[in-house]
């Protein structure tokens, strides 16, 4: 055990922490592994055991304290790029066949959609531009 330098042991610890990182997908293990690599670097520049352990603890705790909240915030955010029917809400369409409270047809994003007026008492004639308020199933709600 005395034949192996301390920096090698820190790298072994880093590799050992990398295994549960891969198996469990818990990023905290990766942050601890980075702390072990930092301790190996400290050993390489001649730091004693107390400094090595302090470097390991400080780097690991700092990474967990900084990176974890940022990752949690990013995980809870919705994607900024709307896709699917969410991308169609708020877009303009052209009425192809008269649309009223019971139905009709519009051209939306290059496709023909069934549509219904949001205000059931209002009707939109062919050629008129309308706004898509919502999508219910395969029917666009317009106004």
Walk me through the structure.
A hairpin with a 2-residue loop joins strand 1 (92-100) and strand 2 (103-108). The longest helix has 28 residues, at 49-76. Helices cover 48% and strands 24% of the residues. By secondary structure, it is of the alpha+beta class. The chain has helices spanning 6-24, 27-44, 49-76, 85-88, and strands at residues 92-100, 103-108, 111-117, 129-136, 139-142.
Write the layout of secondary structure elements.
Layout: H1 6-24, H2 27-44, H3 49-76, H4 85-88, E1 92-100, E2 103-108, E3 111-117, E4 129-136, E5 139-142
Parallel strand pairs: 3-5
Antiparallel strand pairs: 1-2, 1-4, 2-3, 4-5
- Main sheet, how many strands, which sense, barrel? 5 strands, mixed, barrel
Molecular shape: rod-shaped
Helix content: 40-55%
pLDDT under 50 segments (min length 5)?
none
In short:
With 143 residues, the protein is an alpha+beta fold.
Question: What tags apply to this protein structure?
Answer:
alpha+beta; 143 residues
């Amino acid at each position: 055990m005395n034949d192996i330098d301390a920096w090698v042991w820190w790298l072994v610890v880093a590799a050992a922490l990398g295994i549960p990182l891969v198996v469990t997908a818990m990023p905290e293990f990766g942050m601890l592994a980075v702390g072990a690599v930092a301790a190996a670097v400290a050993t390489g520049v001649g730091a004693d055991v107390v400094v090595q352990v302090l470097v390991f603890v400080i780097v690991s705790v700092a990474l967990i304290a900084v990176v974890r909240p940022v990752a949690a915030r990013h995980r809870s955010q919705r994607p900024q790029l709307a896709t699917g029917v969410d991308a169609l809400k708020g877009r303009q369409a052209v009425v192809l066949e008269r649309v009223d409270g019971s139905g009709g047809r519009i051209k939306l994003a290059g496709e023909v959609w069934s549509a219904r007026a949001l205000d059931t008492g209002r009707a939109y004639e062919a050629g008129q531009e309308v706004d898509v308020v919502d999508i219910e199933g395969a029917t666009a709600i317009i106004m």
